Amino acid sequence: MSHDALIPAHLAPPSMPLPFPLTLTRGGLSGFPSPAQDYEGRTLDLNERLVKRAASTFFMTVTGDSMEALGIHAGDILVVDSAIEPRPGHILVASVEGELVVKRYELLGNRPYLTSGDPSYRPIPAADLECQAWGVVRAVVHEYPV
């Protein structure tokens, strides 16, 4: 992942509410929603939903396959907030020896590591390398091929 992949969030993004008629959609069949719900006038603006602090938020495009088991695939867009203090369990964007990576922050034996979702990738010992957290991943935008 290169530094060129960083795209800052717009400090005052234009509002773009889109129709959002149903409050809950289930993956299975559990009955039919009322047709009247389609006309409730509800909208959803993804900027409001996903960007909590525009000044500290940036977007990145993922490369590689090390995080697929955690639902992050090559080509996905990450919404990253640099104002969130990283805690174990968070997925981070970090610079490790000058290379940007997306990994999960974990404590193993009370030592900080960056781990992937794929056991074939070894954990990165964060304390032993030049490592700096750039931000915590707040959301992943994953598009399905059509």
TrEMBL record:
The keyword Signal does not apply. Keywords: Autocatalytic cleavage, DNA damage, DNA repair, Hydrolase, Nucleotidyltransferase, SOS response, Transferase. InterPro entries: LexA-like, LexA/Signal_pep-like_sf, LexA_repressor, Peptidase_S24_LexA, Peptidase_S24_S26A/B/C. Residues 31-137 form the Peptidase S24/S26A/S26B/S26C domain. It holds the Pfam family Peptidase_S24. One of its GO terms (molecular function) is DNA binding. Its EC number is 2.7.7.7. It comes from the Bacteria. GO terms for biological process: DNA repair; regulation of DNA-templated transcription; SOS response. CDD domains: S24_LexA-like. Belongs to the peptidase S24 family. This is Translesion error-prone DNA polymerase V autoproteolytic subunit. It comes from Halomonas urmiana.
